[in-house]
Design brief:
The complex is a heterodimer.
Chain A lengths: L7 E2 L4 E6 L2 E6 L1 H7 L2 E5 L6 E2 L4 E7 L3 E5 L3 E7 L2 H4 L3 H4 L7 E7 L7 H11 L1
Antiparallel strand pairs in A: 1-2, 2-3, 3-9, 4-6, 5-8, 6-7, 8-9
Chain B lengths: L9 H6 L3 E5 L2 E6 L4 H10 L2 E4 L4 E6 L3 H8 L12 E7 L5 E8 L5 E6 L4 H12 L5 E4 L4 E7 L3 H8 L13 E6 L2 E6 L9 E7 L3 H10 L3 E2 L2 H10 L24 H5 L13 H15 L11 E8 L10 E4 L2 E18 L6 E17 L7 E6 L2 E7 L4 E2 L7 E2 L16 H22 L1 E2 L9 H7 L10 E4 L5 E4 L5 H18 L3 E3 L5 H16 L14 E3 L22 E2 L4 E2 L1 E3 L2 E2 L2 E5 L1 H11 L3 E4 L10 H11 L4 E5 L14 H4 L3 E5 L10 E5 L8 H11 L9 H38 L3 E2 L12 E5 L5 H10 L2 E2 L1 E3 L12 E5 L1 H5 L4 H17 L4 H9 L11 H13 L3
Parallel strand pairs in B: 3-13, 22-38, 26-29, 26-32, 32-33, 33-34
Antiparallel strand pairs in B: 1-2, 3-9, 4-7, 4-8, 5-6, 6-7, 9-12, 10-11, 11-12, 14-17, 14-19, 15-16, 15-18, 16-17, 18-19, 20-21, 23-24, 25-35, 27-28, 30-31, 34-35, 36-37, 37-40, 39-40
Classes of the chains: A alpha+beta, B alpha+beta.
Chain lengths: 125, 882
């Protein structure tokens, strides 16, 4: 299971890449593996404002639906529209298939680094 | 919590990297590493293996095994023949499902009942005490046997290879057989839970199942888990206990008749006696009948029904979500997910399934019974109302070898209109008719065995004045059976008809002929109608009793529609109350030659069913029918019956080259006049009773069931043409018939020598008729037939006796009569066989060579010639303005 060292993670299995005032968010390899084949995603609208921990969309696999939470607060500046037609990209390339970009972010202090997230996943097994 | 049970394949699943889950107390694979979507698609395109060893398996034995099963299942177990399986519901006393089950009759003495894994103990506890009331034993053999579902278009090929090339089961759904797979005894059933038209469930000793699993994977099958099993069954609209059967999301039980498939599994036949659930199920059936008439006045028994639902908005529907009509909640989704499918292009037989896939959101909904197909509803998807539509189905399994997704909103391409004005269209029409005529008459080799080209004289007469006239007539007892005509101007056509009857009597060698029927199928319908009338002649005050039993050739063994309950027999055949099916039984065929009737086995069938009508004849025909042997048998056994021979295909070779049914003891012969015979397209009925015979009354009924029973206008133009054709046939019969039969054998031999796979008995030259059957590979028939057409060779694709139906056709059916008439002999058919082989086997373009071959044979043979005849024909053509 891949856990890139340069990203931050939430305990609800989202990854976040922070670049100054901007955050890019997706779901982790662990999450996609647990969900199985992802067949649908509901995306938020650009300009939606989110608090850390808010659900901003849902990801549906053949088996079940699961909410996706934002690990940081901010305003949605972009959504990855490619996922609407090809949600399976989240399975095949979870760290390339970003879901949303946020601007004007506030980063909480409970985000995990790669090592901590790996330990957290190991515990959940 | 009790420890989870494992099937003998557990280690194989784990080794393959499966995700294992608790399923009804069993540790089962939900998916393998490729995932549910890939497993679903692989099943649709290739072949998947499902471990179904966890399901409960009970043997039911003993003298009252059928009586017991009739009591506890909703299906009609008495109708389950050896070698077949049937779906049934285990109902409780209130008409709700305890479980659904499949019942297999692999053996005469022992029935196998298969139930859901999670319900096995519940079912056992329910069934065992009841079984004690019957003289039968119920044995739980779940541990001794295991089972694998082998599903998908390649399943037939893989299992056939393991069986050493022998036929697995009869081609129809639910057929079962005991088959050895590389030395391992198995029971194979053509059943499954995926909607695949080619799919089998293989029952095998628990100790052998790992071998079978690994062997099939080695051959190219892939394992699929419970996840794909669920998406596949949902797409196929098959119910799952706990969703469409059992309790609804509110916890209330779902009536069995609320689910379309379960309704079919309910029989109220008298033979079922007072089975468990009879009374409430009768009420449910009555309520359902009202719904079918859109009578929604009494919805208390079936307030809701289960219907397939497709989501129109983007999203996914899931079990338990509420369904709305406006503000009213009308029920719930019982199953729902996103399922993948392969996209396709083209239409009809030319549909090409691509390797691109897409997904759609579908499900089942348990909703108000007054919701109709195509109605829009809304589903509450986590607080959002999404638009959905009620659809008839999500998938069709009736065009094997593939299951075909039915996507809501798909429209066929509209037909393009040609021109602005009808005048322009009319001119275009004539031009195109010319092109078609030249192509079919001068450039094509026509090998459709049911077709022929009438001679120029026949065609000219068909267009003469009688083509626009009426000549209704019937015999009047008051005038000693002299025919009375209703219209004037009919003396000529009256004489023509008398002459035609005389010619046809001579041809058949029989006493009576009816020529007014205008097709072969109508001939049969008139005969069936007459037999029904004859049967009821002594009691005209009661509702007429229908015919039954009738013995005929099964459609898949070459029988024609015109003698089937789905065709001409439909309105005349009785329903057997014991089986609740049409009272038809089929000729058994020889194990080593499925094109031939097995006479000894037929005698047993006749003794058992004592058919009142025996119908010989078929449309895929290589052999004589055993008329004489069966006549001798029924006479000796004293079985009253009527023997009829539908000679539609072989009418033109009636005689010493083939067979003469009347000489062999047939009583009625029907036929069409345009296949091997020389005529325009009409029908004919012949009988051989004399006036003093009891059944002469049946002949008189045939006359009245023809007119006024079947026709008012009997198409006088073609009747006039048929008289010329009958003159031709009686004049050239001997040479033509021996040429046709010799050409068929030459052609079959040449096809074989050219490397084609010719069906039939090689020791007799493959065929005794005008037909030649060539196998081109399972499912390839339609494509090869189209390719031959592109090369100017016209044949029809044909399902052989072990194939499922027309889309699975693996053969070509050809006849030599038309080309024989155009002068083809041995050398020409040999050349044709070479060209066909090049086209079929090497995909060579032979269009020019075929046209070249045909161009030398455009003059009609076996018809009149000479200066005097030619002058008369010329005069006729001038007179009628052609």
């Amino acid at each position: 299971m891949k856990i890139p060292a340069d990203l931050s993670y939430s305990k609800t299995h989202e990854w976040v890449r922070i670049e100054g005032e901007t955050a890019i968010i997706g779901i982790t390899d662990y999450a996609q593996d647990a969900l199985g084949d992802i067949v649908f995603i509901n995306l938020p609208e650009v300009d939606d404002t989110l608090e850390a921990g808010d659900s901003f969309g849902d990801v549906e696999s053949v088996k079940a639906v699961s909410d996706v939470m934002s690990p940081v607060a901010g305003t949605v500046s972009a959504i990855n529209e490619e996922l609407i037609d090809s949600p399976e990209l989240m399975n095949s390339d979870p760290y390339g298939a970003w879901i949303i970009k946020l601007e004007g972010i506030t980063v909480p202090d409970d985000l995990l680094d790669a090592a901590a997230y790996e330990a957290f996943c190991a515990e959940s097994e | 919590m009790a420890e989870l049970k494992r099937t003998p394949l557990y280690e194989a699943h784990v080794a393959a990297g499966a995700t294992m889950v608790d399923f009804g107390g069993w540790e089962m694979p939900v998916q393998y590493p490729t995932g549910i979507v890939a497993e679903h698609l692989f099943t649709r395109s290739s072949c998947s293996l499902f471990d179904v060893s966890h399901m409960g398996r009970f043997f039911v034995e003993g003298p009252e095994r059928v009586a017991f099963l009739q009591h506890v299942l909703t299906s009609n177990v008495e109708a389950l023949e050896l070698g077949m399986a049937q779906y049934g519901i285990i109902s409780d006393a209130q008409g709700f499902a305890i479980d659904d089950a499949y019942l297999y009759r692999f053996e005469e003495e022992k029935l196998l009942l298969v139930v859901n894994a999670a319900n096995t103990q519940k079912d056992w506890d329910h069934l065992l005490p009841i079984s004690k009331q019957f003289d039968c034993t119920l044995t739980n053999v779940s541990d001794e046997y295991a089972a694998i579902a082998v599903q998908g278009p390649l399943s037939r090929e893989l299992l056939t290879e393991l069986a050493g090339g022998v036929q697995l089961t009869e081609p129809m759904k639910n057929a079962v057989a005991l088959v050895e797979l590389e030395g391992h005894p198995t029971g194979i059933a053509k059943t499954g839970y995926t909607g695949e038209p080619l799919g089998y469930e293989v029952y095998i000793a628990a100790k052998d199942v790992v071998w079978l699993w690994n062997r099939l994977i080695e051959m190219g099958a892939k394992p699929a888990g419970l996840g794909a099993r669920d998406t596949l069954r949902l797409e196929a609209c098959l119910p799952l206990y706990g969703h469409e059967l059992g309790n609804d999301p509110s916890g209330a039980p779902i009536p069995i008749c609320a689910m379309p498939l379960s309704r079919f599994a309910v029989s109220l036949a008298p033979q079922k006696g007072d089975f468990i659930g009879r009374e409430p199920l009768t009420a449910q059936r009555e309520a359902y009948k009202k719904l079918m008439d859109r009578d929604f006045s009494a919805l208390d028994v079936l307030p809701r029904c289960i219907k397939p639902i497709a989501l129109i908005d983007r999203g996914v529907i899931r079990a338990g979500m509420e369904v709305y009509r406006g503000d009213e909640c009308i029920g719930w989704v019982t199953s729902g997910t996103m399922v993948p499918y392969y996209k396709s292009s083209g239409e009809g037989l030319e549909t090409v399934i691509s390797s691109d896939d897409a997904k759609r959101s579908i499900g089942f909904a348990y909703i108000a019974s007054d919701v109709l197909e195509d109605d829009f509803v809304e589903v509450d998807v986590r607080g959002k109302r999404l638009k959905a539509v009620i659809v008839p189905c999500h998938l069709r399994s009736d065009a094997p070898p593939y299951a075909r997704p039915i996507i809501y909103g798909t429209e066929l391409a509209p037909r393009a209109s040609l021109h602005e004005t009808r005048l322009a269209n009319a001119i275009e029409l004539m031009g195109r008719a010319c092109e078609n005529h030249v192509w079919r008459q001068q450039q094509c080799v026509n090998l459709i065995p049911s077709e022929n080209t009438p001679s120029p004289a026949v065609r000219a007469l068909c267009a003469a004045d009688p083509s626009g006239r009426y000549a209704e007539h019937r015999k009047a007892k008051a005038f000693y059976d002299k025919d009375v005509f209703y219209y004037q101007g009919t003396d000529f056509i009256n004489e023509v008809e008398q002459l035609l009857v005389d010619e046809m009597r001579t041809y058949f060698g029989c006493t009576e002929v009816e020529t007014r029927v205008i097709s072969g199928q109508m001939s049969n319908m008139a005969v069936f109608s007459s037999l029904l009338d004859w049967k009821n002649r002594v009691d005209r005050k009661s509702a007429p009793r229908r015919l039954g039993y009738v013995l005929n050739n099964h459609i898949i063994k070459g029988g024609h529609l015109s003698a089937q309950p789905m065709g001409a027999l439909r309105d005349f055949i009785a329903t057997d109350p014991a089986t609740e099916r049409p009272a038809v039984v089929n000729f058994p065929v020889c194990a080593d030659n499925e094109y031939k009737i097995d006479v000894e086995a037929t005698k047993q069938i006749i003794e058992r069913y004592r058919p009142e009508l025996i119908i010989f004849g078929k449309s895929m025909v290589l052999h004589k029918e055993p008329v004489a042997a069966i006549r001798a048998f029924v006479d000796e056994a004293g079985i009253p019956t009527t023997i009829m021979y539908d000679m539609a295909h072989v009418l033109g070779i009636l005689g010493p080259s083939f067979q003469n049914p009347f000489e062999e003891g047939a009583e009625i012969v029907t036929g069409s006049t345009h296949k091997t015979f020389f005529g325009p397209q009409r029908g004919v009925i012949a009988t051989n009773w004399k006036e003093e015979d009891l059944k002469y009354g049946l002949w008189e009924t045939i006359e009245t069931r023809t007119f006024p029973g079947s026709v008012s206008n009997h198409h006088l133009g073609t009747q006039l043409g048929l008289l010329m054709a009958a003159y031709e046939m009686n004049a050239f019969r001997k040479e033509y018939q021996s040429a046709v039969c010799a050409n068929a054998r030459s052609f079959a031999r040449a096809c074989k020598d050219a490397g084609l796979d010719v069906a039939g008995d090689e020791s007799i030259g493959f065929t005794e008729t005008h037909q030649v059957i060539v196998r081109v590979g399972y499912g390839a028939g339609a494509e090869v037939a189209r390719r031959l057409e592109n090369n100017n060779i016209i044949v029809n694709y044909q399902a052989t006796p072990d194939e499922e139906g027309f889309t699975a056709s693996g053969a070509l059916r050809m006849g030599v009569s038309e080309m024989t008439r155009f002068g083809f002999g041995k050398a020409e058919f040999e050349r044709l066989a070479e060209l066909m082989a090049a086209c079929i086997l090497e995909n060579k373009n032979v269009a020019a060579e075929v046209s070249e071959l045909r161009s030398g044979y455009t003059q009609m043979h076996y018809c009149f010639e000479g200066a005097e005849f030619d002058a008369a024909l010329k005069k006729l053509l001038q007179t009628i303005g052609l």
